[in-house]
Amino acid sequence: MTEIKSGTNEFYVEDAGEVIARIEYSLGSNDTIVIKHTRVSEDHSGKGLGSQLVNKVAEYAKAQNKLIVPECSYAKKVLESKSEYQDVLAK
User: Fold this and answer.
1) Where are the alpha helices (DSSP H) in 1-91?
2) Which PANTHER family did the record assign (predicted)?
């Protein structure tokens, strides 16, 4: 299992001290989390790190009773494709 770390308005994955994947968000109005960007380094693409990061934000949103506004097209695609996250998507 990949260790996902948290920072200020972000979750990320490191490999040998280098950030190889990151999802950035901001706190919006009305108790929302706005996902801004999801990035995975080219050397590590295709390993599922991006979707793991989106899942982490979704679980965080559930725990904090917040809704997600996915401005990032990748995050939007992942969240909309999973039935278990429909309740955290802002309408």
Assistant:
1) 49-64, 73-81
2) BSR4717 PROTEIN, PROTEIN NATD1
CB 22 within 8 A of CB 12: yes
Count of structural domains, the chain: 1
Task: From 82, 84, 61, 73, select the one nearest 37 (Cα to Cα).
Answer: 73
Q: How many angstroms separate the CA atoms of 68 and 88, rounded?
A: 6
Task: Record the pTM.
Answer: 0.93
CATH number at residue 81: 3.40.630.30
Per residue in 35-65, pLDDT (tens digit) is 999 999 999 999 999 999 999 999 999 999 9
